[in-house]
Amino acid sequence: MHIGARQRTSITAVVVGLCGLSMLAGYLNKARCTGAPFDAAGRSLIFDRIKDTQVCYSDIQFLWVGRDINLHVFPYVSGGINADGMLTGGTVEYPVLSGILMWLGGIGSHTDADFLLHSALILAPFGLLTAWMLGRLGGWWALLWSATPPLTLYAFHNWELPVVATSVAAIFVMSIERFPFRSRAVVAAVLLAVGFCLKLYPGAFVLPLIAYVLTQNRTADRRYDVRGAVTVAAAAICTVVAVNLPFALISYSGWRASFTFQENRQADMTTNSIWYWGLRPHFGTIGLDTPVPAYDQTVGLLSPLLVCAAFALALRLGWLRFLRNGTFPWIAVSAAMLCGFLLLHKVHSPQYTLWLIPFFVLLRVPWGLVAAYLVADLAMGIGVFKYFGALAAGEDPHTFEWLVQFGVWGRAGLLVVLFFVFLRAPLRRPSPTTHPDADAELTLAKSPEPAR
Q: Where is the signal peptide (predicted)?
């Protein structure tokens, strides 16, 4: 039975409504770590006592102090990084658009409680927008975004919601077939570039988008659309330059410091990575979090090399699928690239799960894999803070350490499987509960648009 636009709208409304409730629950959970009395800097005294044991820690509240947000300093333009690796003068460790959002959340804030609330009000519309787009594209499957634990756990853990919204928006724009193909691709590239200026990872998706445009929008004699591909690449590059150049010109040291901070970051016990739990024990156990120079150098070399290799493999396998089927699966390749990054990067923060969930909605992934990933993530999202709390209190941490390792290795194994599953997975075809343009990659393959 055909279900019309009205029922699709109703489904999307449910998805958006549940997203709002999940984010409200997420805010209330994080807000348990805030409240009077406050210290002289406006930090809730209760924060350090319960942030781990009560699993209400958030980077938002933590970074109220230490990045001059409490002093309302505009980021990047007067700061830098000192010899000890500490950021100074308002510089934060994220790309410039995330820094601007942090600064906006600090306006009018006098305590970390204010900052958490104001930041949540800024971030929440991006979560709702993501829910709306996923509801239009994936129908009921969008409940994976709106009604599963990660949104409650991580919506206001860090500044992830805007960057997820940009990556989903790029896919959504590409699904709107009534607009010219190349125009959609340029807009999508701009959105991904904006995402790069928020948290970097969407920038990687420009590569499969370029391959998609190169192969999809061909002329009648089947020549590749080189001009379209170059235009998409130029749109992404120009966007990144336009956003970053003013900051680099005003204060290169302040702008560069955010990248230097991430480059220097060690794969320590706070990173939840396979490197810390798998490789570090082979370099000796000086202490749980004591720097080991040889280990840091090894990870600093291997991690970026292997991430790049994973990207190259995903693109190659996507190209082979194009040769078989006639369409380059840019969304599937993007999902696989993300799996490679999450697995091999030296930092795997719990909230990165929010990056992955939209691909569970958009691509046909076996439900068992999705459920297993959510279970592993839940073990990590709760276990890691309980583990830190037990260590800080001098209590036996072994139960919580087991949860952490279950989360680390469970996610790692599933990411390897998902890397290849994504590359074979089709988009969810249009159905009575999905947006009619949701399978744009497949429909466009049947009727390529002439190059302009």
A: none
Among residues 93, 95, 90, the alpha carbon closest in space to that of 106 is found at 90
- Separation of alpha carbons 135 and 28, rounded Å: 25
pLDDT in tens, 13-37: 999 999 999 999 999 999 999 999 9
Three-class SS state of 287: coil
C-beta separation of 308 from 296 below 8 A: no
pTM over 0.70: yes
Query: 205: closest CA among 189, 216, 217, 194?
Result: 189
Confidence of residue 269 (pLDDT cuts 50, 70, 90): confident
Average pLDDT rounded to a whole number, residues 349-361:
96
User: Which pair of tokens denotes residue 366?
Assistant: 């076996």
Distance between CA atoms of 179 and 184, rounded to whole angstroms?
A: 7
Which DSSP state fits 327? S
Per-residue tokens: 75: 């980021």
Instruction: Specify whether the CB–CB gap between 189 and 232 falls below 8 A.
Output: yes
Contact in structure between 375 and 353 (CB atoms under 8 Å): no
What gap in Å lies between CA 182 and CA 174, rounded to an integer?
9
Residue 449 burial by CB count (10 A; 0-12/13-18/19+): exposed, middle or buried? middle
Note the pLDDT of residue 197: 97
Handedness of CA 419, 423, 426, 427 (dihedral sign): positive
**pLDDT given for residue 254 in this prediction:** 92
Bridge partner list, 320: none
CA distances from 111 to 51, 59, 69, 90, 381 (A): 16, 15, 10, 17, 26
Phi, psi of 223, rounded to the nearest 5 degrees: -75, 150
Q: Where does the pLDDT of residue 161 fall: very low under 50, low under 70, confident under 90, or very high at 90 and above?
A: very high
56 close to 33: Cβ distance less than 8 angstroms? yes
Task: Report the C-alpha gap between 424 and 418 in whole angstroms.
Answer: 10
Residue type, position 86, single letter: M
User: 81 in helix, strand or coil?
Assistant: strand
CA trace torsion 350, 355, 360, 366 (10° rounding): -40
Beta bridge partners of 44: 38
